[in-house]
Design brief:
The protein has 214 residues and is of the alpha/beta class. It contains eight helices and six strands. Helix content is 35%, strand content 11%.
């Protein structure tokens, strides 16, 4: 289930110039902020503050293990890709920051970001191939945690986005219900290896499946 909370940055500030955008890509980041309390709400408050809104740095969403916060509207550009004022990363992509604060479970936060990607792909008809890393635009080592295989690698992240997207496309999830996904658990395992094998068997039979740690 995904619930989006709006904490919009002030209009006309450096972080939110209100340049119109039709999203074609989704760009995934890790915050690189491991400070205690640096969760999604905290990042929203920062870009609402005088100090944060004055900077030419912004992102559409911040995601942790409990919250998905929208800070810049989906139809406005944000400064997150590092590819210049007119670069496609900044001017044509929705930026998602995955929080790394120590009290947030990184796996759950990353799963939530994958689910958000699927909802946005479905909403704006964005190709799954256009879900990219920050590294794609600027060469920066970001999303740093995913690129280090934490809590899993990029291939796994993309597979999860695909699984959530298929659930939406197949009508397993109702995207009109507040952007929520309703998932049906079909098994629980003490061994991750066994869970992965079961998921592969399901996918081989046409069932969207992924492994989520509880």
């Amino acid at each position: 289930m995904i619930n989006i909370t709006e904490m919009l940055a002030p209009k006309g500030t450096n972080c939110r110039p209100t340049y119109a955008m039709t999203p074609v890509y989704i760009t995934v980041h890790n915050t690189a902020n491991t400070s205690k309390g640096a969760g999604a709400v905290s990042h929203g408050k920062y870009l609402q503050s005088a100090a944060g809104s004055a900077k030419y740095v912004s992102y559409h969403y911040a995601v942790d293990d409990k919250n998905v916060v929208r800070i810049i509207p989906d139809n406005e550009a944000a400064w997150h890709a590092g590819d210049g004022a007119n670069g496609a990363g900044n001017r044509k992509s929705i930026g998602i920051e995955i929080c790394e604060n120590p009290e947030s479970d990184l796996r759950t936060a990353t799963d939530n970001a994958a689910m958000l990607c699927a909802v946005l792909c479905k909403t704006y008809s964005i190709s799954l191939a256009n879900v990219v890393q920050h590294n794609h635009w600027s060469g920066k080592k970001c999303p740093n945690r995913i690129r280090a295989g934490e809590p899993y690698d990029w291939a796994t992240f993309v597979a999860k986005v695909c699984g959530y997207y298929k659930a939406l496309a197949d009508g397993i999830a109702d995207e009109t219900d507040g952007g929520k996904l309703y998932l049906v658990q079909t098994g629980a395992f003490a061994s991750r290896e066994n869970a992965e094998k079961y998921a592969e068997n399901l996918k081989a039979n046409g069932v969207a499946a992924f492994v989520k740690e509880q």
